[in-house]
Amino acid sequence: MTRKSLQLGRAVEWPKTPDQAKLDRVPNPQRDTNYLVRFTAPEFTSLCPVTGQPDFAHLVIDYVPGPWLLESKSLKLYVASFRNHGAFHEDCTVAIGKRITAEIKPKWLRIGGYWYPRGGIPIDVFWQSGKLPKGMWIPDQGVAPYRGRG
């Protein structure tokens, strides 16, 4: 992948939908070393597909890179593309995990979607892919069980 094709370092339009969003990857210079990368999106928003009301979540994405790293600006644009996208909590969380996995082919990935209450019930959604390499230390995702989430 040439640098010119990356969204990093240049102005790009915000994608209107998750399908239009491009996820960029860059070569992993430490591909022979197992280590953890964590992205946190504490202000994720999407729309309820039934009511059109906004839904809010705290997303935590952990992965052990393989040959590729996920470029963070492209992730920010991808996550923002859900702002006007109608989907259930489970679909948003799992779709994000699957899309990232398809793009960067990590050794292991997990995503935790900690959704704020709708109708008085918070929903937490977890998905993972791959096999955790032996001996990896994986910290807690650090999102407290629901007590106001803040």
UniProtKB/TrEMBL annotation:
<keyword id="KW-0963">Cytoplasm</keyword>
<dbReference type="GO" id="GO:0033739">
    <property type="term" value="F:preQ1 synthase activity"/>
</dbReference>
<feature type="binding site">
    <location>
        <begin position="89"/>
        <end position="90"/>
    </location>
    <ligand>
        <name>substrate</name>
    </ligand>
</feature>
<comment type="pathway">
    <text>tRNA modification; tRNA-queuosine biosynthesis.</text>
</comment>
<dbReference type="InterPro" id="IPR050084">
    <property type="entry name" value="NADPH_dep_7-cyano-7-deazaG_red"/>
</dbReference>
<feature type="active site" description="Proton donor">
    <location>
        <position position="55"/>
    </location>
</feature>
<comment type="similarity">
    <text>Belongs to the GTP cyclohydrolase I family. QueF type 1 subfamily.</text>
</comment>
<dbReference type="Pfam" id="PF14489">
    <property type="entry name" value="QueF"/>
</dbReference>
<protein>
    <recommendedName>
        <fullName>NADPH-dependent 7-cyano-7-deazaguanine reductase</fullName>
        <ecNumber>1.7.1.13</ecNumber>
    </recommendedName>
</protein>
<dbReference type="InterPro" id="IPR016856">
    <property type="entry name" value="QueF_type1"/>
</dbReference>
<comment type="function">
    <text>Catalyzes the NADPH-dependent reduction of 7-cyano-7-deazaguanine (preQ0) to 7-aminomethyl-7-deazaguanine (preQ1).</text>
</comment>
<dbReference type="InterPro" id="IPR029500">
    <property type="entry name" value="QueF"/>
</dbReference>
<keyword id="KW-0671">Queuosine biosynthesis</keyword>
<dbReference type="InterPro" id="IPR043133">
    <property type="entry name" value="GTP-CH-I_C/QueF"/>
</dbReference>
<dbReference type="GO" id="GO:0005737">
    <property type="term" value="C:cytoplasm"/>
</dbReference>
<feature type="active site" description="Thioimide intermediate">
    <location>
        <position position="48"/>
    </location>
</feature>
<keyword id="KW-0521">NADP</keyword>
<feature type="binding site">
    <location>
        <begin position="70"/>
        <end position="72"/>
    </location>
    <ligand>
        <name>substrate</name>
    </ligand>
</feature>
<dbReference type="GO" id="GO:0008616">
    <property type="term" value="P:tRNA queuosine(34) biosynthetic process"/>
</dbReference>
<keyword id="KW-0560">Oxidoreductase</keyword>
